[in-house]
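FIELD: query
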Amino acid sequence: MNQLGIIIFMFFVGSLIALQGSVNSALGKYLDHPLHAAIVSFSIGIIVLLMASVLLKAGLPNPSKVFAAPKTILIGGALGAVFVTSVILSVPKVGVANVVMAALCGQIILSILLDHFGAFGTEVRSIDLKRIIGASLVIIGVVLVSLPKSPS
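FIELD: result
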């Protein structure tokens, strides 16, 4: 898949974040605790990943490689748990759009910094005026969309 195809694909996959927030928030209400929703969500996720691993004949990770990996690159699951639980707690209080918009602002800023420094072995993509302007426009849009409706 070329770069444009990947970007279009990620546009649609990114929309699932809003759906995930809504569904997990409803599950948290239904199960009477947001942590229960996160546990169920991650459990279903691991089942889906195991099925995909079998269907794609990828196998399971080598345990010795996992235990030998630098600890800094093993935090993804913990970061995901914090994110999912935070979304479950926040959606009922401020709504899906505001949660996703705030998360998007944080993702934009941190992703530009991670690219700039080539964090975790990624290709370095230096911060330049074009990237700052582009990110700023997205952040301004995010802020405008999340502002409360003005009284009529």
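FIELD: remark
The first helix runs from residue 3 to 31.
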